[in-house]
Design goal:
Layout: H1 3-17, E1 24-28, E2 31-35, H2 45-70
C-alpha cells in the first residue's frame, strides 16, 4: 500500500476508536478512500460539523506524528 493509503487507514482507526462517529472505507479503481455517510433522519448540521472537526483534528495529529517520525 502507498504511504497515503497507510495514513488513511490510520486515520480511519483513530476516528473510529473514539466511539463518537463511525466511518468506513471503500476501494474504487484501486484507490483506497474513506467514507462518511449521514443517514439518520435526526442528524443536524451541528452533528456533521462536530464530526468534521473530529476528522480534521485526528488527521492533523496523525500528520504531525508522521512528520516527526520522518524527520
Amino acid at each position: 500500500p502507498s504511504y497515503v493509503e497507510h495514513l488513511n487507514k490510520k486515520l480511519l482507526d483513530s476516528v473510529n476508536s473514539t466511539g463518537r462517529l463511525y466511518m468506513t472505507h471503500s476501494v474504487a479503481g484501486e484507490v483506497y478512500m474513506l467514507r462518511f455517510a449521514v443517514g439518520a433522519t435526526l442528524t443536524e448540521e451541528r452533528h456533521v460539523c462536530a464530526a468534521w472537526k473530529l476528522i480534521k483534528e485526528s488527521a492533523e495529529a496523525l500528520l504531525k506524528r508522521s512528520y516527526y517520525n520522518i524527520v
